[in-house]
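Predict the 3D structure for this chain.
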Amino acid sequence: MTDEVPTWRGQKPSPYFGHAAGARPQCASIASLHGTVGAARRFIRRDVFERSTLNAYSNILDLLASSVGPGAPVDQITDREIEDLLDRWSGRAATPYNRHRAALLSFLGWCETRRWISANPVALIEPRKVRRRTEDERRARPITRELLAALWTLDGVSGRDRLLWRMAYETWARADELIGLDVEDLDLGRRDGIVQAKGGSAETIWWSTGTAQLLPRVIARRARGPLLLAARRPTRPMPAADLDPVTGRARLGYRQAERIFTAIGARLAPAGAPWTPHRLRHSGVAHAVENGWSTPAVRAKSRHTSIRSLEVYANPSADAVRAMTDALDPKVRRPPALRRRF
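Done. Predicted structure below.
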C-alpha cells in the first residue's frame, strides 16, 4: 500500500452518522491514532483466512487505502467514499460488486467490534441483486460436444494451452488448481495427480487418454517445477516455487490462461457467451450427468462437498433434451434406443 496521503475530496452529507453536510463520524477511539493502512494490516494478518480470501481482501483494502488516503483514520471513512470505491464494479455483474462489498463490510465490521468506529458505513450500501439464470442460459453454459471436438483439433494452439483445456475437461479440476500443479504432483502411469484444492487441502484428480497423450510432450525431460509455464522469463522477482529450475521461466498465470481461452472461444463461437476456463469443468460434469452417471460418482470426481451443489450441472443440453424427446415419440415405428438417462 502507498504511504502517500492524497488531498481530501469534498464530501456530501451522510445521514447514517447524523452529522451535518460533509461531516465525518467522530469517535474518540484508538482508531484515531491509526490510519487505514495500519488497521487493514492488523485485519489481514490474522490467521483466519484462506490464501485466496487473503489475496482478495488485500487487493480491495489496498484500493480502499488509496481511495480515502492511507493516513485517514478508519473512523472517518464515510459511506459515500465506500460507494465511490464500489462504483469501479457498478458496470459489471452483481457478483464481483457484492464480493468486494462483503470484504469491506467484514473489515469495517471487525473495526466496529473493537469500537474503533461507531458504526459500519458499508451497512448503508445495499448489495446488488443477482440475476438468476434462465433454464436456456443454464443449458448454454456447458460447451457443446461439437465445439469441444473443434477445440481439441484447432490449429495454431500451443501444447501447453491444449493440455490445460483438455485436463480441465477430463479432470473437472478448477483452472487455478491445474495451473498450480508441479511436475512432481503427477503420476503418469496411474493417470492421476494431487492438486491444492480450496482450503489448501490436497485432493486427487484423474484424467483420460487425451490428457495422457499430451502430458509427456509438455513435461519433456523436466523432473520438477511448474507443469504449465509462461512463454518468457519473468521481468520481476518471483517465488522460487513458481520458477522452472531449468529454463527459469515462470508458472503460467491465470489471467493469461483466461485471456487466451476467451479469445479462442470468440473464434469458435462468436455468437455465444464468453468462454472462461471454468466452463470446461462445467462441461465435463454436465456431460457426465447427461450420460447417466450416478450422483455419488459425479460428486466424487468433481469433489463437490454437497449433492446440492451439483444441481447447477443437472441441466441437460438442448440437444440432449431433443434426443430424449425423439426417443420417446410414440409415433415412431422403431424408436431409437434411449442412451441418456436424466
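DSSP finds 13 helices and three strands in the chain.
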